[in-house]
Target: Protein phosphatase 1 regulatory subunit 21
Amino acid sequence: QLRAQNQVLKKGVVDEQANSTSLKEQLKMKDQSLRKLQQEMDSLTFRNQQLAKRVELLQDELTLSETKGKKSKKSGESSSQLSQEQKSVFNEDLQKKIEENERLHILFFEADEQHKRLEAELRSRLDVLETDAAQHQAVVDSLTRKYTDTIEKLQNDKAKLEIKSQTLEREAKDCRLRTEECQQQLKNLQAALGSRLEESLCIINEKVPFNDTRSNRYNALNVPVHNRRYQLKLRDLAGQALTFVQDLVTALLNFHTYTEQRVQIFPVDSATDTISPLNQKFSQYLHENASYVRPLEEGMLHLFESITEDTVTVLETAVKLKAFAEHLSSYLCFLRKILPYQLKSLEEECESSLCTAALRARNMELHRDMKKLTAVFEKLHVYISLLALPSTKSEGLLRTNYSFVFTNIATSLHGFHDILKDISKHYSQKATLEQEVPTATQKLITTNDCILSSVVALTNGVGKIASFFSNNLDHFSASLSYGPKGGTEFISPLSAECMLQYKKKAAAYMKSLKKPCSDSVPYEEALANRRVLLSSTESREGLAQQVQQSLEKIAKLEQEKEHWMLEAQLAKIKLEKENQKLKHSLSGNLAESMQEHSVLPNAAEQKEETIEKSQRETVKTTILLNIKISFFFFLLYQALDNESREDLIKNHYMARIAELTSHLQLADSKAVHFHAECRALAKRLALAEKSKELLTEELKLASQNISRLQDELMTTKRSYEDQLSMMSDHLCSMNETLTKQREEIDTLKMTSK
Model:
C-alpha cells in the first residue's frame, strides 16, 4: 500500500512540476507583455505630458492674444486675418491633438480592461494554486503522519519480533536440551526393548511350536474378538426386520386373497354364472398363496432366533439366511406361475363390454406394473441368494463385494416401493372408474376397497423396509464382514462352524474360571503357618549342618583309621623282626618265655582290633542314628505341612509374578509414553526451527522494508519541501508583480484623470 501511495504521490509531484513549469512560462510571457504595455504607457504618458504642456502654452498664448486684441482694436482688422489663420492652425492642431488624445484614451481603456482580465485570470490561477498547494500540503501532512505511524508500528513490531525471537531461541535451547535427554532415554529404552525383544523372540521360538495366524486355514479356526454391542445391535435390527416382514406377509396374504375374491366376482359373478376357465385356474393358484407367503415369515423368525448375544453373526455363520432365500425363491416361482394368468385376466377385463376406454388404459398400466413387480422380486431374490452363498460356498461371494450387494438391495427396495406406489395409484383410479359402471355391485366395490387397502398397507410396509435398510446400510456392511484377527475372511463355512464350536468351548471354560474363589486364610492362621514354616526351615538347616559335621567327622575318622592301620602294620613288621632275632639268640627255656610273650602281643593285637571295631561301630551307629532322625523329621515336616507349604509357595510366586508383570507393563507404557513424547518434541523442535527461520526472514524483510520506506519518505519529504519552497517563492514573485501592476494601474488612472 505504501509503495502504491508513493507511486501515486510521485505521479502527482511530476504533474505539479509540469504545471509549475508551464505556469512559469506563462508568467514570463505575461511579464513580457506587461513590460511592453508599461513601455507603451510610459511613452503615452510622456506624449500626454508634452501635449498638456503644449495645450497650456497655447492657452497662454490665447489669453495673451485676447488681451492684446482688447488693447489694440485698431490693429484688429490687420491682425484679424493673422489671428484667424492662427486660430485655424490652432484649431487644426487642437483637433489633431483631441483625436490623438481620444485614440490614447481608447488604447488606455483597452489596456486597462486587458490588465483587469489578466489580473482576474492571475488571481483565479493564484486561488487554484493556493488550493492545490493547501491540498498538497494536507496530503503531505497526512502522508507524513501515516509514515510516522507506520514507522512506529514497524518499530513496535520489530521490538515484538525481537522479543519473540529471543523467547523462541530460549525455547529452542530448552527443546534441544530436552531432545538430547529424550534421545538418551530413547536410546536406553531401545536398548532395553531390544534385549527384551530378543528374549521374547527366543522364548517364542523355544516355546511356541507354530504361528497359526500365518496360515489362513488355521487362522480361520481362531475365535475372533467378540463384539457384544454389534451383536445386540444386529439382534435389534433383526427384530425390526421381523416385524416389517410380518407386516409385509399379512399385506401380501390380503392382496392375494382379495384378488381371488375379485376374480370370482368380476367381470362375471360366479354366483350367477360360470367364470372363464382362465379365471378358474387363476383363482385356484391364488388360493394356494398362504403356502408360499407364510414361509417367508417363518424363515425370518428362524434367522432372528439364530442371532443371539453369544454367537458371532457374519454371512459365513448366518446359515438360516439360506432357508429364507429358498422360501423367497419359492414365492418367486409362485409369482411367475400366476403372472401370465393375471395378465390374461386383465386382458379379458379389457375385452368385456363393460370396460370403457379409461378403464382399459388403467388395466394396461396395471398390466405393466405387475410385470415390474415380478422383476423386482427376481432382483431381490438374486441379491439375497448372493448374501446366502458365503454360508454354503466360500468362493461364492467375495468379501469386497458385500457393500455392493447391500447397496443394490437398498436400491431394489426403493424401486419396489415406487412400483407399489404406482400400483396403488392406478388401482385407486381403476376402482373409482368401476364404481361409475352401472352394473357394479356393492360386493365388487367392497372388494376393490379391500384390495386398495391391502396395496396401501403393502406400500407402507415396503417403504418402511426400504428406509430401514438404507439407514442401516453402513452397519450391515461393517458388522457382517469381520473375521478372525490377522485374517481377511473365513475360508469356508466348515471353518466358521468349527470356530463357533471353539467359541462355545472357550465360553464354557471362561465360565468355569469365573467360579467363586475359596475363602482366604485368616491372618492369625497365616502367622502361625509362617512361624511353622520358619521353624521347619530352621530345623532343616540345623539337620543339614549336623549331617555336614557328621560327614566331616567320618572323613577325619577314616583318615585316622588309615593312619593307625599303617602304624599297626609297621609294628607287626618290627615285632616279627624282633621275634626272629630272639629265636636265633635264646635257648629253649627262653622259648617258652618267648611263647608267652608271643601270646601277649597277639592278645594286644586282638584288643586293638576289637577297640577299632567298636569305634567303627559306634561311629556308624551315631551317623545312622543322626540320618534316621533327620530323615524322620523331614518326613514328618513333609507329612504335616505339605499342602499348606505348597499353597504358600504358590501364592508367593503368583504374587511375585503379578508384581513383575505389573512392573513390566508399567515399563512398557512408560517406554511408549517416552517414545511418543520424544517424537512430539522432535516434531515441535522441527516446527520451532522452521518458524524461527521464517520469523528471521520476515524480520530481515521487515527491516529492509522499514529502511527502504524511511529512505523513500525522506526523499519524498525533501522533494515536497523543495517544491513547496519553489511554489512559495513563485507565489511571492507573483504577488510582487501583481502589486507592481496594481501600482502602475493606479498611477495610470491618476494620470488619466
User: Anything to note?
Assistant: DSSP finds 14 helices and no strands in the chain. The longest helix spans residues 588-752. Residues 1-55 form one domain. Residues 589-605, 625-641 have pLDDT under 50 and may be disordered.
